[in-house]
């Protein structure tokens, strides 16, 4: 068994698609109309056959509440791995990404956290 799709709640699918592709560099894999919303998945540019990230509308009240609460508490909704966190931090800062935590060494890893502008904090990590 392996993970093929994971999701993240977003407030606006179009805004999220733009942020995740234009700022972060992910590649759109699927974009299928599904009634009022769309099935939009993204993949890493480096692994286009890898795990897909679904931009899931936070339309359900429980999803909205969950997203709002973890954001308010400062918990990242998900984590992305990078090979050079300082280089990635600089690249994202130059693209206007707002960080809530700059690269910080924590034991064997270095982490940073940014706001995805769609209701989530995202953590990047270098092992």
From TrEMBL:
- Source organism of the structure: Bacillus atrophaeus (strain 1942)
Q: What protein is this chain from? A: Methylglyoxalase
Q: Which residue range or ranges hold the VOC domain? A: 1-127
């Amino acid at each position: 068994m392996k993970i093929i799709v994971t999701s993240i709640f977003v407030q606006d699918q179009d805004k999220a698609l733009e942020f995740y592709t234009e700022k972060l560099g992910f590649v759109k894999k699927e974009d299928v109309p599904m009634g009022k919303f769309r099935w939009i998945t993204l993949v890493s540019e480096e692994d286009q056959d890898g795990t897909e990230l679904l931009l899931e509308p936070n339309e359900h009240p429980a999803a909205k509440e969950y997203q709002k609460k973890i954001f308010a508490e400062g918990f990242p909704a998900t984590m992305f791995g990078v090979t050079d966190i300082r280089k990635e931090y600089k690249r994202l800062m130059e693209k206007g990404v707002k960080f809530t935590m700059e690269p910080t060494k924590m034991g064997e890893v270095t982490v940073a956290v940014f706001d995805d502008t769609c209701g989530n904090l995202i953590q990047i990590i270098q092992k």
